[in-house]
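Action item from last meeting closed. Structure (496 res):
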């Protein structure tokens, strides 16, 4: 009988083979240039002093040629530096932390549901099953108007919630950075479902007496990914306005959007969304580069709204009883996966090392030419990023991205813990996650952070940040009194 072949995977450390391949490909230029430079140096050393002096004397320089060459070099350098995009810095940011009296434990939430939906026990049971599997904890918060039985979603109470969450975040940011209202040149506010007149941006201008020539924008109806759209808009504005600062506010006002009907697809947001807000200060000033926490590297936006299913998968509408709510389609996760695929196809070439891009290219060619059934190669984004901030839209969203991007439990820890502690705070959730990483003392100089968010429409948006300096563990922020308890174990089902 022939002898059995040795187990190749067991005899060779494939992990180290892959690491060697990545190092070789990513540093190929260095490996090519070093021998060339050594060869030139050896040839120079071989030449004697007389030969070197002859070579130098043979080079005759004309004064006019020198001046023209110098002018040409200076001209090219000037054009290059003037056409180069301005660097955009994130000076600092803050997240709103609700007071303890806004807390909604599971028992309170279900008691209110039973009283509000007493004529529809099936809807109550549905909400309980969703809450059991949601990944939320006992400390998430809802605004005061939702604590009433039945809730009182008036315009006055909605404005009151907006003032609490927005003004608190801005006050904290001004205290941290020392920026004055007169120093703000651009103001951008994003809130999808609450769009009063005057706008929320006008409310901020009135409260802080901002300058009359401030460039203010109010984005509405753009979903949970609107925070990164605001960052993209601020970046574009700071590119054309030198020596400027931009204040970005990301929030979602829950009060007027609490659904009081019995449609299951429209009851889901009640179980997941909670109050929150974030204030971010961006700057293109050179002097802010020293104190800034991060530098903006890329923003990539993907819009799938041309497809009808994608357009209607998150849809505000009236139920048969005329009650307004947000309808979440069953196809949401499939559509989100397609949007993510389009987004990472665009961002991959911008951030992935050459080793990963080559493997992806070879696999793609192999599938096209040899065998379409070959398993597609999923690039290892862990080679490009140190931290991941995945929108805490729900447990299923985080699970799906962890699986598709082949991330470890630690990579999605910030997203899961943010969902557990604060719930889905919509567009501001990414900043609670960033704050979690900082509170754990994990953010080091040079680290790259990938923020990924999904939103109605349907959109998938990404932002890449580079850490400017090693960030000391903060003594304030939304995690200051609970970070020592995290991470916590989140069971698959919490029996209520």
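Sequence:
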């Amino acid at each position: 009988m022939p002898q059995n072949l040795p187990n190749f995977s067991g005899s060779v450390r494939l992990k180290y083979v892959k690491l060697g391949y990545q190092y070789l490909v990513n540093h190929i230029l260095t490996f090519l240039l070093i021998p060339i430079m050594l060869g030139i140096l050896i040839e120079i050393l071989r030449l004697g002093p007389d030969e070197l002096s002859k070579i130098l004397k043979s080079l005759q320089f004309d004064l006019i040629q020198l001046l023209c060459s110098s002018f040409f070099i200076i001209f090219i350098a000037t054009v290059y530096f003037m056409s180069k995009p301005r660097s955009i810095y994130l000076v600092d940011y803050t997240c709103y932390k609700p007071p303890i009296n806004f807390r909604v434990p599971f028992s309170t939430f279900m008691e209110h549901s039973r009283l509000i939906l007493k004529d529809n026990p099936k809807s109550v049971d549905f909400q309980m099953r969703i809450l059991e599997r949601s990944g939320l904890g006992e400390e998430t918060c809802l605004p005061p108007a939702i604590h009433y039985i039945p809730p009182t979603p008036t315009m006055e109470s909605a404005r009151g919630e907006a003032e609490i969450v927005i003004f608190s975040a801005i006050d904290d940011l001004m205290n941290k950075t020392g920026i004055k209202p007169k120093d703000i040149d651009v103001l951008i506010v994003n809130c999808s479902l609450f769009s009063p007149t005057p706008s929320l941006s006008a409310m901020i201008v009135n409260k802080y007496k901002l300058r009359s020539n401030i460039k203010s924008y109010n984005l509405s109806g753009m979903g949970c990914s609107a925070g990164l759209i605001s960052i993209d808009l601020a970046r574009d504005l700071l590119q054309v306005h030198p020596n400027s600062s931009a204040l970005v506010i990301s929030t979602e006002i829950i009060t007027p959007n609490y659904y009081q009907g019995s449609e299951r697809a429209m009851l889901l947001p009640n179980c997941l969304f909670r109050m929150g807000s974030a204030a971010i200060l961006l700057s293109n000033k050179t002097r802010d580069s020293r104190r800034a926490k991060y530098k903006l590297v890329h923003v990539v936006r993907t819009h799938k709204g041309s497809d009808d299913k994608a357009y209607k998968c998150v849809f505000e509408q009236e139920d048969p009883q005329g009650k307004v709510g947000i309808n979440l389609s069953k196809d949401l996760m499939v559509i989100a996966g397609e949007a993510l695929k389009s987004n990472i196809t665009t961002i991959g070439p911008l951030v992935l090392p050459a080793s990963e891009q080559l493997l992806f290219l070879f696999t793609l060619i192999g599938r096209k030419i040899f065998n379409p059934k070959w398993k597609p190669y999923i690039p290892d984004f862990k080679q490009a990023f140190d931290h991941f901030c995945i929108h805490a839209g729900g447990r299923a969203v985080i699970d799906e991205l962890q699986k598709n991007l082949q991330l470890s439990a630690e990579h999605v820890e910030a997203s899961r813990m943010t969902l557990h502690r604060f719930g889905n705070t919509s567009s501001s959730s990414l900043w609670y996650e960033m704050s979690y990483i900082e509170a754990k003392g994990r953010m080091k100089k040079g680290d790259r952070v990938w923020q990924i968010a999904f939103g109605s429409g349907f959109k998938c948006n990404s932002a890449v940040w580079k850490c400017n300096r090693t960030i000391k563990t903060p003594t304030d922020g939304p995690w200051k009194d609970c970070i020592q308890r995290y991470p916590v174990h989140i069971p698959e089902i919490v029996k209520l």
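Note appended to the action item: The longest helix spans residues 155-177.
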